[in-house]
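Q: I have 453 residues here and want to know how they pack in 3D. Can you give me a structure?
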Amino acid sequence: MSHFHFRIANDTPWGLLNLAIDLVNNLWVLICGLLVFSMTISVGFLEVGELGRKFDNSLLKTAIITASSLLFMGFLGFNIAFSPSLDGIIGNPVYNGIFLGMFSSSDPGILSGTYWLTGAAYSGTYLATGTFFFFEAACASVTLALVGVVVLRKIKLMAFIIYSAVYFTIIWTIPVAWIWNPTGWLYSIGARDFAGGLLVHGAAGIAALGIMYQVWVEEKKRGMLESRKVPLNLNGGWLTLSILLLWIGWFGFNPGTELGLNYSTVMILLTTFLSGSAGMISTMFFKYLETRENPGMLYAVNGTLMGLVIVTPLAGFVSPGSSVILGLIGGPLFIFAEKLLSRPKWFSDPVGVLPVHAVGGLFGVLMIGVFSQNVFASAAGYPGLPDGLLFGGGISALHQVGVEILAIVAVSVFVFVTSYLASLIISKALHGLLNETDYSKSTETTPSAEGDY
């Protein structure tokens, strides 16, 4: 991740120009961070749109996630993910101290200078520490919002808050230190994930599975033969609002990951929106072929999300044409994954985090070695990424596919194990993960006064 950025002293005309460019980059990334932050609350709108207004607690949950991401990422998570790493495994936890130096004004990049990862050796966009922190905390917030869709009407409020602390300091941040941190061990061997097909979408699905397994263990102890399901209760207005805000939020998510404003940023925007559009059309088309009925707003939303998710890990590496093809593939892939993942009885996934985010994200990561073109990757700051198999990459492309598979396996194992262990320990500490009041009712779906999700 390196961009050439010529630096001259700020007291010269060229130096002042560099300073202006730096300020523009900081402003751009701050705006992108705000857009990404809006996505967390928008996930709550999505839940309400799919499950009905009686689930307004979805909005409370996403508000709590938004706040906790800033606090826990500021406490230690940001350092663990993005500070110079210790042996490529974990970022230095004390690099900037807790809460970005707490009361100190002398830590690197707090009031002047740039955060090390955005300096000349890496992105070359010269972002202040606060700017980079804000953007990455927003990205972290979205990932937990995706995890949280599976716990609706299942677990205690306190259990989820404690889980968020573990998530933002261990479960999410350590894998980020492996791939998004240029000193991480997976990054060092060539693993790439532009904006989070694995680290955001795939990891969210795997972390959700870790929680769902502990939920299932406790449900079985109650004599249940299958995990409790939350029925769909569609609301077209809420669904439309959610996909509008999520789509706009992706404007910040993928282009913002470039960490600066340049011509590649515009190309990333195009590939993102084209893939989302193709995903919606493809999903609606193939669902119509299957049922000969209007698929409705639900499949329009999930198809758009599938296209956006698939292109996220390679948005900076592919052409507009490739992004359209990827989005078109997303339609039948989503329909197949939805059917396949509806068969298991041991988990409930009412909003589709697994077929959309887990399957779509991991598929997109695998496609890095197939659709990438070095000319686009170089413009985005990744000159070492080879052409994909479809563009003559040959052995180098096959090696890239292998590296991405290794990254998927390593991150998936770590995230599932830590998510499950966190859920288990929290369950022991709170004498159960499940909300007792809610599970004492039969099939009633009105939120209880206990603050269940």
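Q: Anything worth noting?
A: Strands lie at 85-86, 90-91. The chain is about 65% helix and 0% strand.
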